[in-house]
Amino acid sequence: MIPNSNQTVQFYLDDELIQIPIENQQETLLDFIRLKKNNTSVKEGCGEGDCGACLVLQAQTEQGKLVYKPVNSCIKFVPALHKKSIYTAKYISKSLQELHPVQQAMVTCHGSQCGFCTPGFVISLLAHYLDSQSKKANEDEVINAISGNLCRCTGYRPIIEAGLQMQEFNEPIRFSRADAFSVERLQ
Ligand code: FES
Ligand code: FES
To answer: Whole-structure pTM over 0.90, yes or no?
Structure first.
């Protein structure tokens, strides 16, 4: 739902409630995160929705159920965030005070070198982790989950391995399939 031009956009960014008038319809979520919130952990690559460096996790309720998906913040405009929750990869480990299983698997499998693409891959794998009905890893599904991400230096094999191993770690207290906290807040 996008509010009218005289209304206020209300959404959560990394658990902070954001309420802003719709004064600049052209502002992207990427600019808002990097320039207004000084959070440069979300990267700008192509700026056109092709590389996945700017991915963030979006949560919204659909029929009382929390649905997660990765969104390219470089082509997502702020008014479209109304009544949604957005999480950055950096905040996920900060709020848990430890690495999420997806992040731990990336470390264990050496899925990162320069790190520029890494937050984006973490978000794609996390969305897949949260939406998977089964804990059984499936290589085709992992490859499909990261099909919107580009990496220039690591190569994809270690990242696919991380996607296969992430299910083997203990489920965290948040950002798990049973995350009731976020459902309640968005309703
Ligand atoms: Fe490349 Fe957003 S910066 S998809
Ligand atoms: Fe350098 Fe992926 S780790 S671009």
So the answer is: yes
